[in-house]
């Protein structure tokens, strides 16, 4: 699955973006499949907006996001759902956990959404243990702290098959130790799938061996 | 571990529109019962008519003639059927078989044997043998026979026995006595006369006329008659259902009459059909409203879970998966309603059958196949309409 940007400009940020130079906005960009990509973005430059465009949950832009050389808009709803189950996974900045489900149910929901689950229930337990959230698995989503929610969201993103993992400040609520554990797990899972990721964050970091860097 | 649908159940709460769902389900149930009753009642009434009146035969015979009005009096030709009218009658859907009633074109007199001093002018008619309800070995005639078999109407004998004989102080006679009496029958035209022995061989309930075999009538008409085939003024038809309103209307429109007693059920049938149609119509209207309420319920459920559904779609749930999940919530309800309605109507049918049997009216104890098919059809319709609705509302927000 190839992701390309073609002179992408968000309509709400248009004036601001056209006044300065960016390595992403308003130019052609090709993300090489399997590469670890870091996009560094100060606040207010449209970082979350970009993630939403890449994952196709917002479309208020000019230019195009091309998936396998075709714009997102040309795919049917069921085809997009299929890609979100098989080819592209996401960790949102606002985490998006179902509060009426427990932590484990949130992960299970994503795991059994595919008719043939990619990983086993034991694998989920194992990942939870590695991220130190085993003790909250049966807790309601409503009562989880942000740090716990973030780790649940990371595991949820890793239970499906994917070629691209899109992450929006995935360690923002984690302490250094937990962030490193999470990064290590994400790195391993991407390698296991021969998948690439696109990670946006505020600052520089050395948690991954990035293949490419962009400034938004 | 819970399945995907079990997890969806925790996210998409269908409890919110409970009152609406109950209304829709109730409406669907009542609509279904009305529709099924209408269809079942229609079948039952048909069955009732058939059983009651034609216990042994599946068809009935009607003798049809034109109504004699004051304007027609004295002009016998006006009561005859024209060839066009006959063809028209023959091709009506209710006409299963058609026959002419042929009249004599010569004079007939009959005299009782011995010293009974009975002498009368009379007439003969003939119909094809297949229309006669008297099956008799003696019912045949060839030119070499001097004896003519005759069938009398039962009504005629009754008129004589209970009307004429009693009031005139004459002896009543039995069918057997009459059959044993040979009559002297003389047919003539101008100077030609010929004498025969007439023998009564049976009594007909079906045709009110003095019947002789067709072969005799043809022979006598050609020998004594004008030689031209006269247009018939009475015809006989065989029909499956004399209570068919179409038949009654046809006769009335054309100004024909027949034994009104035989078609009297057509009025009853018309009334029953009207009532049944009205019930069915209300059933249909109610069904439409039930579908509307269902659609409102679906809209409410989806609108109330809009955020959750959007997040599910964001996480990769296919709209198709959501549709299937929602339909799974509703389908068992339809099937339950359908089965409940069928059971209720079946119970009604069983009860009605028992009640009617007390009055010697017999209808099936079980539901008609058509009724069950109708129930299935309604369920399929509800399913399709709801599926379309679910798809529409899911697509609108995803």
From TrEMBL, chain A:
One of its GO terms (molecular function) is ATP hydrolysis activity. The keyword ATP-binding applies. Pfam families: ABC_tran (PF00005). It comes from the Bacteria. Keywords: ATP-binding, Nucleotide-binding, Translocase. Residues 3-216 form the ABC transporter domain. InterPro entries: ABC_transporter-like_ATP-bd, ABC_transporter-like_CS, P-loop_NTPase. Belongs to the ABC transporter superfamily. This is Putative ABC transport system ATP-binding protein. It comes from Chitinophaga ginsengisoli.
TrEMBL record, chain B:
InterPro entries: ABC3_permease_C. It is a multi-pass membrane protein. It is found in: Cell membrane. Its main location: membrane. One of its GO terms (cellular component) is plasma membrane. The chain crosses the membrane at residues 21-41, 275-302, 330-351, 363-385. Keywords: Cell membrane, Membrane, Transmembrane, Transmembrane helix. Residues 281-390 form the ABC3 transporter permease C-terminal domain. It comes from the Bacteria. This is FtsX-like permease family protein. The lineage of its organism: Bacteria, Pseudomonadati, Bacteroidota, Chitinophagia, Chitinophagales.
């Amino acid at each position: 699955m190839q992701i390309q940007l073609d002179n992408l400009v968000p309509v709400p940020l248009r004036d601001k973006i056209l006044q300065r130079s960016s390595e992403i906005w308003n130019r052609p960009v090709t993300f090489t499949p399997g590469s670890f990509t870091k996009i560094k973005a100060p606040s207010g430059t449209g970082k979350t907006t970009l993630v939403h465009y890449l994952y196709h949950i917002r479309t208020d832009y000019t230019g195009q996001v091309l998936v396998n050389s075709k714009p997102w808009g040309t795919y049917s709803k069921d085809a997009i759902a299929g890609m979100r189950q098989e080819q592209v996974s996401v960790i949102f900045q606002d985490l998006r956990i179902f509060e009426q489900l427990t932590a484990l149910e949130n992960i299970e929901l994503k795991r059994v959404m595919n008719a043939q689950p990619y990983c086993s229930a034991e694998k989920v337990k194992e990942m939870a243990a590695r991220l130190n959230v085993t003790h909250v698995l049966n807790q309601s989503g409503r009562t989880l702290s942000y740090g716990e929610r973030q780790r649940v969201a990371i595991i949820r993103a890793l239970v499906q098959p994917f070629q691209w993992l899109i992450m929006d400040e995935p360690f923002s609520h984690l302490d250094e130790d937990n962030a490193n554990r999470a990064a290590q797990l994400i790195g391993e899972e991407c390698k296991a799938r021969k998948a690439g990721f696109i990670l946006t964050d505020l600052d520089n970091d050395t948690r991954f061996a990035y293949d490419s860097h962009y400034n938004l | 571990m819970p399945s995907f649908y079990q997890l969806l159940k925790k996210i998409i709460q269908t409890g919110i529109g409970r009152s609406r769902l109950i209304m829709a389900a109730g409406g669907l149930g009542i609509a279904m019962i009305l529709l099924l009753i209408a269809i079942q009642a229609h079948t039952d009434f048909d069955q009732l008519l058939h059983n009651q009146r034609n216990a042994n035969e599946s068809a009935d015979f009607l003798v049809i003639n034109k109504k004699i009005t004051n304007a027609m009096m004295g002009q016998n030709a006006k009561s005859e059927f024209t060839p066009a009218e006959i063809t028209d009658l023959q091709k009506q859907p209710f006409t299963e078989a058609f026959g002419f009633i042929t009249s004599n074109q010569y004079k007939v007199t009959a005299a009782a044997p011995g010293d009974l001093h009975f002498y009368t002018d009379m007439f003969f008619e003939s119909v094809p043998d297949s229309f006669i309800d008297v099956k008799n070995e003696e019912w045949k005639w060839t030119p070499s026979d001097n004896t003519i078999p005759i069938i009398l109407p039962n009504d005629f004998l009754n008129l004589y026995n209970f009307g004429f004989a009693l009031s005139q102080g004459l002896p009543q006679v039995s069918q057997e006595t009459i059959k044993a009496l040979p009559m002297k029958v003389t047919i003539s035209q101008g100077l030609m006369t010929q004498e025969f022995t007439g023998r009564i061989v049976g009594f007909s309930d079906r045709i009110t006329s003095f019947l002789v075999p067709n072969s005799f009538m043809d022979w006598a008409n050609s020998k004594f008659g004008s030689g031209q085939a006269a247009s018939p003024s009475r015809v006989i038809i065989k029909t499956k259902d004399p209570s068919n309103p179409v038949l009654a209307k046809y006769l009335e429109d054309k100004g024909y009459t027949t034994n009104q007693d035989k078609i009297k059920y057509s009025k009853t049938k018309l009334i029953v059909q009207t009532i049944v149609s009205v019930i069915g119509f209300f059933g249909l209207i109610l069904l439409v409203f039930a579908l509307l309420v269902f659609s409102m319920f679906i809209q409410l459920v989806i609108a109330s879970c809009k955020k959750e559904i959007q997040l599910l779609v964001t996480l990769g749930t296919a709209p198709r998966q959501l549709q299937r999940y929602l339909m799974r919530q509703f389908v068992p309800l339809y099937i339950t309603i359908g089965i409940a309605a069928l059971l209720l109507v079946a119970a009604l049918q069983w009860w009605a059958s028992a009640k009617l049997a007390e009055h010697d009216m017999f209808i099936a104890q079980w539901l008609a196949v058509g009724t069950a098919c109708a129930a299935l059809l309604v369920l399929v319709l509800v399913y399709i309409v709801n599926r379309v609705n679910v798809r529409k509302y899911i697509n609108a927000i995803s």
